[in-house]
Amino acid sequence: MKKIAFALALILSAGVVGAQQTISGTHTYTYTPESSLQIEELEDGRLSVSIERGKNMVFTYEFRKKDDPAIADDEYTMRIIFEVPLGGTSFKYDAKDIKIVLMKGCFCTDRGYHRIVSGYVSGEKTCKGWKVKWKLETKTVPESEGNNWNSETKKPASFIRPKAVKQKGKTN
Prior knowledge:
- By secondary structure, this protein is mostly beta strands.
- The chain is built from 1 helix and 10 strands; from the N terminus they run H-E-E-E-E-E-E-E-E-E-E.
- The strands form 2 sheets. The chain has a 5-stranded antiparallel β-sheet, with no helix packed on it. Strands 4, 7, 8, 9 and 10 form a 5-stranded antiparallel β-sheet that branches.
- The longest helix is centred in the first third of the chain and has 18 residues, at 2-19.
- It starts with a helix and ends in a 13-residue tail after the last strand.
- Residues 1-21 and 165-172 have low confidence and may be disordered.
């Protein structure tokens, strides 16, 4: 009886440990001055999103899950993209007052771009870039009440300006 109780306790504790593991992957935090976030609603209700030259600043957070070659279609990418006015040394905006979207890239029903429905983003300029915090929420599938998405930073994330890509000139 003691062996059965011990084995059951061991199995249950292994399940709890497995549930607490974090997903491994890469996190990238960048900002682009003199840019603009373009959001267009398509006829079928989906969103088309692009970053173009403009008078504001666009921040992009990207999480790319580490791929497991033994699992088909497990690739996952998530981005939070938002635009704030250029200039100043700090900002804080309600999500409803700025252009902000969530992108889910996966083999799933709610892939694509989604509008953020509530929350905030705040930032403070530093000598190395920007320290940014957010608390955001959206519903990724409007028909499903149980498909809410939430994200909150516990401490500010460091956003850096990406280095310019040198383009090779043509020689004749």
